[in-house]
């Protein structure tokens, strides 16, 4: 096919999809525009965003041209917000909608009526890309994530090209700005490629964009400085913009092939200069150019629904009628004897084979390509049964060893990665570097450690970029971990929320299969951020995520190293989940054998018999590793003071938004009674904010017996033990609370209660004086030995 024929086909294709996108925004009847519009054809409520749709259609058609020409797999990510009418128009044209929804959206006028009537309607189709739509791997409700997700999707998919359309408004967000740095991380020898296309239509919802007011020279300098090869397409240049774009796409494809071929032939490609297309077309291109003296096309006024009173205003209706007529949609199709639409032959020339259409790209359905991990043998990694209780060890060391062995076992599968914001060493995961390296495509100096072109650890100091890459990696069927400092995980709270919404919405879609879990590891925990100070003390992410759907979110707070190993194994076996593992990176007592840890993870709550008495007078609970250490120390201390008091120790290691582990106390309250007794006082020492636990037990009839301790937003640069003191989670505070519960229940008298409280308060005063004088905690605080 000659270029002239290709350009003619592209123009027809874009005319068709622009018509279908416009029809979805406005029409409920007469969707093929067979007659002049009437007010009764218009939806009663007009919603949607027209301004970005023409650019999405223009790029989609050009991607189709490359697929047909080169027989290559593409996935198309749409970053600009609320452009779904355009995406859906193309999914209809290529046949993906009728393939997956044959009874609802057949390839005829009835199918077009469905997508028009249901777009942005109650129980219909959203205004942004979503999991219900074929081929989509990004919940497009929030701007800024498209490019990072695209980079994640192409990792370990060497034949895939992710074409990513980025809005110039979207490009102003922090996550998107950081995503340009991923070119430093992706090895062209073993991974696919991303083709970023920045749509510079000049305007956001109510004002200009930064890029829209930049000159060609400024744009060129910016992207060359970021390490890319910019190619500018501009509808104001003399050459036809369709010709410009076709040439730009061909050039980009040739550059990608050249980089990959050279890298795969053994050449060390330093700073691969990937192409980026900077595409200037008018916002609202081909729509109503102006109305009533107001400029619409090429202005922010075209961002949403223009001429939006068509249901009642004659002038608006006439403008829409003229607009739809301009596409001459009736010239682009015929209807066969089965009622199916048969598009013009030139349009058909741009329709890829079904298996290569963007909507039927098999990688976008994750679960169809999932390969389960080969798991390490935990018995070779765990602290053995012969290890005395209370022996000290580091949970994150154990997780690092598990990841090392998992990477070795799955080396040939290439289906496991770590996305770490520059903190792999800091979070004590360095055992992985016995098996792999950190990926780095820029120069590597001889003194750099653990860095290589093809490392399995993706490390850069941007939580946004790396979480987005993990999203793209997991929803396309692979396994990943995102370890980060607990205090700064809030940076990706909204991204995690969007991921959860994507996964939850996917579960109701018949053609989507379960995808591997997204595993967030929180370390550098608040209890040991004493040296970094108040700014590093923040468990907010944990509480925020526990507001989400219980089927999607699980928070694991293992009490020790063996529990951490078991929960790591479990997290990677999960599907359609976001798991949070909270584990310390400092020396802590080890409490459970491997068998005991496995037993506890079945329910996420367990009475530790080795630390408990029959018929207890009071219940003590630990939820989190550092606070469990303090709870066990309090247990030893109160038994020294009150040797006849009977105590039950409960460990909670799993939380969801519906409760503590598997305890369904809303429908089966006796389960809570069995664990926490029916009438005894409970002192609950929790790693995060107390309100998180208070909300979880609120509906339990015995919740008034609970005294919940946790982070009270008190902290500073201090000593480790003093962090617990400041927030009331220290062993001394726990003894005070248990004594009060025992006094309330009549187990001890007032004299004993006052004496114990006075003793503990004095110890707290003595502690404060000691650390102010010496700058460190007394050695005795960590040197206590578990005895029973």
TrEMBL record:
Domain of life: Bacteria
Protein name: Phosphoketolase family protein
UniProt family annotation: Belongs to the XFP family.
Organism listed in the record: Shewanella canadensis
PANTHER family: PHOSPHOKETOLASE-RELATED
Named cofactor requirement(s): thiamine diphosphate
GO MF, one example: aldehyde-lyase activity
Domain Xylulose 5-phosphate/Fructose 6-phosphate phosphoketolase C-terminal: 585-786
């Amino acid at each position: 096919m000659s270029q002239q024929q290709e350009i003619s086909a592209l123009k027809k294709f874009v005319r068709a999809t622009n018509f279908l996108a416009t029809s979805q925004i406005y029409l409920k009847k007469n969707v093929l525009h067979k007659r002049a519009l009437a007010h009764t054809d218009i939806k009663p409520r007009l919603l949607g965003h027209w301004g970005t749709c023409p650019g999405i259609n223009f790029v989609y058609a050009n991607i189709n041209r490359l697929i047909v020409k080169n027989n290559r797999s593409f996935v198309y990510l749409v970053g600009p917000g609320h452009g779904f009418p355009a995406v859906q128009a193309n999914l209809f044209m290529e046949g993906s909608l009728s393939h997956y929804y044959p009874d609802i959206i057949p390839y005829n006028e009835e199918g077009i009526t469905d997508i028009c009537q249901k777009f942005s309607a109650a129980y219909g189709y959203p205004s942004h890309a979503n999991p219900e739509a074929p081929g989509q791997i990004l919940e497009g409700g929030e701007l800024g994530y498209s490019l990072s997700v695209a980079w994640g999707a192409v990792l370990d998919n060497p034949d895939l090209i992710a074409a990513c359309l980025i809005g110039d408004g979207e490009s102003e967000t922090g996550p998107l700005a950081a995503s340009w740095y991923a070119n430093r991380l992706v090895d062209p020898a073993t991974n696919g490629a991303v083709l970023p296309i920045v749509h510079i239509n000049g305007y956001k919802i109510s004002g200009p964009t930064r890029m829209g007011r930049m000159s060609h020279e400024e744009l060129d300098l910016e992207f060359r400085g970021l390490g890319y090869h910019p190619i500018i397409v501009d509808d104001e240049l003399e050459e036809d913009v369709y010709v410009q774009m076709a040439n730009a796409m061909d050039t980009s494809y040739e550059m990608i092939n050249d980089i990959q071929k050279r890298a795969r032939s053994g050449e060390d490609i330093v700073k691969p200069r990937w192409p980026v297309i900077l595409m200037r077309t008018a916002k609202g291109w081909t729509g109503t150019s102006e109305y009533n003296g107001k400029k619409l096309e090429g202005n922010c006024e075209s961002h949403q629904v223009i001429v939006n009173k068509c249901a009642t205003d004659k002038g608006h209706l006439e403008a829409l009628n003229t607009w739809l007529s301009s596409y001459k949609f009736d010239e682009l199709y015929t209807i066969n004897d089965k009622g199916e639409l048969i598009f013009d032959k030139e349009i058909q020339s741009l329709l890829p084979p079904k298996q290569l259409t963007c909507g039927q790209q098999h990688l976008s359905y994750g679960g169809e390509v999932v390969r389960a991990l080969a798991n390490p043998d935990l018995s070779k990694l765990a602290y053995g049964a012969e290890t005395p209780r209370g022996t000290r060890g580091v949970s994150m060391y154990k997780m690092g060893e598990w990841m090392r062995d998992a990477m070795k076992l799955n080396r040939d599968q290439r289906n496991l990665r770590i996305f770490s914001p520059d903190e792999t060493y800091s979070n004590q995961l360095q055992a992985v570097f016995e098996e792999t390296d950190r990926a780095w495509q820029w120069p590597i100096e001889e003194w750099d450690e653990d860095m290589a072109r093809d490392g399995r650890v993706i490390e850069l100091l941007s939580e946004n970029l790396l979480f987005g890459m993990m999203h793209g990696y997991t929803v396309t069927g692979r396994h990943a971990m995102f370890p980060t400092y607990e205090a700064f995980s809030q940076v990706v709270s909204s991204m995690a929320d969007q991921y959860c919404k994507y996964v939850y919405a996917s579960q109701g879609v018949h053609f989507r299969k379960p995808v591997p879990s997204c595993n967030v590891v929180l370390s550098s925990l608040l209890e040991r951020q004493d040296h970094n100070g108040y700014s590093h003390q923040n468990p907010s992410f944990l509480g925020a995520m526990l507001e989400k759907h219980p089927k999607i979110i699980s928070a694991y707070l293992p009490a020790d190293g063996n529990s951490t190993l078991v929960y790591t194994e479990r997290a990677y076996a999960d599907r359609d989940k976001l798991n949070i593992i909270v584990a310390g990176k400092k020396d802590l007592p080890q409490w459970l054998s491997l068998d005991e840890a496995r037993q506890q993870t079945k329910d996420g709550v367990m009475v530790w018999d080795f630390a408990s008495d029959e018929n207890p007078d009071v219940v003590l609970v630990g939820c989190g590793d550092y606070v469990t250490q303090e709870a066990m120390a309090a247990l030893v201390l109160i038994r020294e003071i009150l040797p006849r008091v009977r105590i039950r120790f409960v460990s909670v290691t799993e939380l969801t938004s519906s409760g503590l582990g598997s305890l369904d106390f809303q429908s089966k309250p006796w389960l809570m009674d069995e664990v926490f007794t029916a009438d005894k006082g409970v002192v609950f020492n929790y790693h995060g904010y107390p309100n998180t636990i208070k909300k979880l037990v609120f509906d339990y009839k015995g919740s008034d017996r609970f005294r919940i301790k946790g982070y009270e937003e008190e902290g500073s640069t201090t000593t480790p033990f003093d962090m617990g003191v400041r927030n009331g989670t220290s062993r001394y505070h726990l003894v005070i609370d248990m004594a009060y519960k025992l006094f309330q229940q009549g187990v001890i008298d007032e004299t004993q209660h006052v004496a114990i409280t006075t003793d503990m308060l004095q110890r707290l005063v003595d502690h404060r004086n000691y650390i102010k004088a010496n700058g460190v905690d007394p050695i005795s605080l960590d040197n206590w030995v578990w005895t029973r």
